Amino acid sequence: KDIESERNTIYTDEHGRVKVRINLYANQEELDNNTFITNDIDTNSSNLSSNTYKSYHHTPFLRVASSIASNHSGFFHTPRIGDEVIISFLDDDID
């Protein structure tokens, strides 16, 4: 789904999780797609149309954490498309 055209709107799944675009792997994605497109060994137009290109930009849906929370009150903000966010990894392991 193309969500870039919907900037400043909220896009979540049924659990309130959001997708995040990470540009860390943009160069690898470009290399993979160029290799896939320009590789002329056993490729024809029917093969190209049936395959999907790899996309490293968007994560799966991620939970949103809040810095202000308690048992009876708190603050929750759902990031909108185009907002900048901070991502933390469990035990600092991206995998």
From TrEMBL:
- One Pfam family this sequence matches: Phage_base_V
The segment(s) forming the Gp5/Type VI secretion system Vgr protein OB-fold domain are 57-94
Concerning InterPro entries, the annotation shows: Gp5/Vgr_OB, Vgr_OB-fold_dom_sf
Top-rank lineage group of the source organism = Bacteria
Q: What is this protein called?
A: Type VI secretion protein VgrG
The record lists the organism as Campylobacter jejuni
